[in-house]
């Protein structure tokens, strides 16, 4: 019997309207447009208005992906996020309810910037096992909510946004079918990307107010090196699974963390830099939303067209990483 593959049949994305340029950041922090562009490739990022939360981003992107999938009935919702609306419960059930999807299973996946690929793997597993015929996978993050207002190295990089795909059961040889998602982790390096306080190890309580660190922290240089190695390794595995070589890849959609990381990855793999999808210049690093937002941008610009061979890869806190291939299907992105 042919195994049930997970096939992309819808794509949606959403960015909060408010864009903050490097020059605007430089008015409140000791930084400059030149430093940020040269070291990261980022020119602006979108920031969610006060009073809104990650679920608001996820609902917008999810609704667009469902529209793109001709409002197919979905059997499950997987939300990849590191910035849930609350520590508890998960944000996905609220998103499913607001999208009017009924009592479907809905849960969050926490793999920080690799979250979307972990979400794809989870959804593909549901489909392969026969637990679902179609799944809405959303990557949504509002990092503006967890950044230290005084930390120029993280505020320069991160922005808010959401992207989503709908996966349905299909054949492994049809356009849109995901190859095996190759994932990895290394928890011995979890300190490199962390929100130190506010979890069970160091709860924030009124009695200890002012003592914990509730903000996102990152050891930028160590992460940089690890990112290139882990994305290259998982990409090679994903290409091997698909029976492709680097020359077969029409578009590399890598996690949009730093243009220098993407170029180092392309160089390492022997891939022409021109084949890297670049979206971070306008949105920065949007964590779990990064890969689907870059896909949507590439479709909108005509860079990504039906039949193109796509390699997606990401890395992030955990540490976590992953990669996966697909041949792009004929879907309209919203
Ligand atoms: N503006 C101006 N100077 C800045 C700055 C900013 N926005 N951010 C950092 N700096 C300063 C640092 O404070 C440091 O100053 P010092 O030498 O006086 O201490 C100097 O720039 C060099 O810092 P360094 O960390 O060595 O710079 P870098 O070239 O490695 O770039 C990152 C920093 C964060 C852009 C880079 O390391 C990076 O992108 N790392 C990967 C991070 C990432 O992708 N994270 C996502 C995880 S999913």
3D structure, described in words:
There is one protein chain. The chain is built from ten helices and 13 strands. The chain has 334 residues and is an alpha/beta fold. It has a five-stranded mixed beta sheet with strand order 1-7-6-4-5, with helices on both faces. A four-stranded mixed beta sheet has the order 8-13-12-11. Strands 2-3 form a two-stranded antiparallel ribbon. α3 (54-68) crosses α4 (92-98). It is globular, with a radius of gyration of 19 Å. The structure holds coenzyme A. Coenzyme A (COA) binds next to α2, α6 and α7.
What's the quick description here?
This protein has helices at residues 22-28, 33-40, 54-68, 92-98, 115-129, 152-155, 220-242, 259-269, 280-283, 290-301, and strands at 5-14, 19-21, 44-46, 76-80, 106-109, 134-142, 160-170, 182-185, 193-194, 217-218, 251-254, 309-316, 320-327.
List keywords for this structure.
334 residues; alpha/beta; four-stranded mixed β-sheet; 13 strands; globular; binds coenzyme A
Write the layout of secondary structure elements.
Layout (H helix, E strand, L loop, with lengths): L4 E10 L4 E3 H7 L4 H8 L3 E3 L7 H15 L7 E5 L11 H7 L7 E4 L5 H15 L4 E9 L9 H4 L4 E11 L11 E4 L7 E2 L22 E2 L1 H23 L8 E4 L4 H11 L10 H4 L6 H12 L7 E8 L3 E8 L7
Parallel strand pairs: 4-5, 4-6, 11-12
Antiparallel strand pairs: 1-7, 2-3, 6-7, 8-13, 9-10, 12-13
The chain binds coenzyme A.
């Amino acid at each position: 019997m042919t195994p049930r593959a997970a096939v992309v049949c819808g794509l949606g994305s959403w960015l909060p309207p408010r864009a903050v340029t490097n020059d605007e950041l430089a008015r409140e922090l000791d930084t400059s447009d030149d430093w940020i562009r040269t070291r990261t490739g980022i020119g602006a990022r979108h920031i969610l208005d006060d009073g809104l939360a990650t679920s608001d981003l996820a609902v917008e992107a999810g609704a667009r992906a469902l529209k793109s999938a001709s409002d197919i009935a979905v059997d499950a919702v997987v939300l990849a996020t590191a910035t849930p609306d609350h520590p508890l419960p998960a944000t996905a059930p609220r998103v499913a309810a607001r999208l009017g999807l009924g009592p479907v299973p809905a849960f969050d996946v926490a793999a920080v910037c690799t979250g979307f690929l972990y979400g794809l793997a989870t959804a593909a597993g549901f489909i392969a096992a026969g637990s679902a015929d179609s799944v809405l996978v959303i990557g949504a993050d509002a990092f503006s909510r967890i950044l230290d207002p005084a930390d120029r190295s993280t505020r320069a990089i991160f922005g808010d946004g959401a992207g989503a795909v709908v996966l349905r059961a299909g054949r492994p040889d049809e356009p849109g079918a995901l190859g095996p998602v190759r994932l990895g982790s290394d928890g011995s390096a979890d300190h490199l990307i962390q929100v130190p306080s506010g979890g069970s190890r160091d709860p924030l309580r009124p009695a200890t107010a002012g003592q914990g660190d509730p903000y996102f922290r990152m050891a930028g240089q160590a992460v940089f090196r690890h990112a290139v190695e882990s994305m290259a390794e998982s990409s090679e595995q994903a290409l091997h699974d698909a029976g492709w070589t680097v020359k077969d890849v029409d578009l590399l959609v890598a996690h949009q963390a730093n243009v220098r990381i993407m170029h180092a990855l392309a160089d390492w793999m022997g891939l022409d830099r021109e084949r890297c999808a670049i979206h971070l210049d306008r949105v920065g690093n949007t964590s779990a939303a990064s890969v689907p937002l870059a896909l949507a941008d590439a479709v909108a610009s005509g860079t990504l067209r039906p039949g193109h061979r796509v390699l997606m890869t990401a890395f992030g806190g955990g540490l976590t990483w992953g990669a996966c291939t697909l041949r792009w299907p004929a879907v309209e992105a919203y």
